Amino acid sequence: MPFYHKLGEIPPKRHTQFKKPDGSFYYEQLFGTIGFDGMSTNSYHEQRPTQVKEIKNQYSVAPKIAKANNMQSYRLHGFKVQPENDYLQSRKIVLSNTDCNIILSAPKSSTEDYFYKNTDADELIFIHKGSGKLRTHLGNLNFKYGDYLVVPRGIIYKLDFDTEDNRLFIVESYRPIYTPKRYRNWFGQLLEHSPYCERDLRRPQELETYNESGDFLIKIKKQDEIFDMVYASHPFDVVGYDGYNYPYAFSIHDFEPITGRVHQPPPVHQTFETDAFVICSFVPRLYDYHPKAVPAPYNHSNIDSDEVLYYVDGDFMSRNDIDAGHISLHPAGIPHGPHPGAMERSIGKVKTNELAVMVDTFRPLKVTEEALKIADSDYYKSWLE
Ligand SMILES: [Fe+2]
What we know:
By secondary structure, the chain is mainly beta. The chain contains three helices and 29 strands. It has a nine-stranded antiparallel β-sheet with strand order 5-28-7-8-15-10-13-20-16. Strands 4-18-17-9-14-11-12 form a seven-stranded mixed β-sheet, with no helix packed on it. A seven-stranded antiparallel β-sheet has the order 21-22-27-24-25-6-29. About 40% of the residues are buried. Belongs to the homogentisate dioxygenase family.
């Protein structure tokens, strides 16, 4: 997150003595990214954060690839993914490449008996259904329908849900997730033409601090495997931190759409960037207002990007037979566009209530076995008249 945040108690100068009321020391940790070049946070712990007690299990969570090379458009029925009690087990990778995994998840239960840490990837968790609290060692964030939760790699977290009815769309990104560079000035401040500003980004305001010893299981993801590591101190033992590297939330409902006289291209919907894919938010908005405007998108060849749309809510004017929870995959290399009749019925429409999240990847996506379980194999013929 490209702005400074401070929470809890910290000493006036970094890397200096910081003592507890009983005269013993707090333990400082510099939590850096991209070596010492990226965003970092200095945190202060009740106990040393290095106390590994035991490494128990190590098991693969690599996606099972069904189609490594894909030229077929797909529709996936996301809500057909069966709810499961456990959060990690509920995460089903449906599309994957060397830069990211696209995951559907319907967890019924909060993470109770373990903590989770992804060391390889930033996680962008979009809340389609459900509400609750993201609890991390750098503070908590309440979440509800429409929130993007950005959890940078290495943040130890748990998810508390209010009910059993939860649907998450998750992008696990091996490339750091940032706000779009073109919307930032040279200091990192979001500019006037940005569709959102700092006030819309929610930072942790509540810090849970436990000075406890015992057995604390952290499930740590590294290189497509989970390591069950037992620590001797509670992972949430931070009394304070400051810096730029922390989790934050942004609601899709706070994205201000950019409109025009003629059809605006997808970059106006861009919400986050990496150097390997973009994430866009399609939100309720007024349509184009040229007297001869065609509100439906034109056919387009995203010749070198795979395009993934996750449909959240509202009407989806350019598609026939698309519902909330569906994913469409339009692969690089071939054109796609409105379904038959969609362009014609868009004429004269003045607004849309659609809500969708798009992920455009610059490298092709592989289709997994989990995806084929919920796929419409005939979708690729749906433009035939
Ligand atoms: Fe498209």
